[in-house]
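Tokenised fold entry reproduced for everyone:
>
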Amino acid sequence: MLRECRRVLKPGGRIAGYVIHTPAGLSPSQTRRATELGPAYVTASASPDELANLAGLSVTACEDVTDGFWTTCMALLQARRTLEVDLREEEGDDFYEEERNKKETMVRGIDEGLLIRSLTIATRPVA
């Protein structure tokens, strides 16, 4: 995906996005745990900066927004609990449980120091 972003950006063009990733230096057991708690792609073989560089982009800014993301996850969990009856009726039990579980495991991963969310800005170099 990053290569395609580079392809469509004009030289000097920028792209920004949020990335959920793991901190550097996790042990193999911590990496397995992060994989259990985070999204499927969370344990990429390289850091977000390295992946951007491999695609020909230069990271110009990276800000850790994990605290705000944790707060958002907790607010969503609380809203799901408050609206559980209505959401189960609208979404169905399986989808409700899946979404609740995703947020709970994400919070657990953040609390255990295994998941980070960053706002990353990358630029396509000028020739």
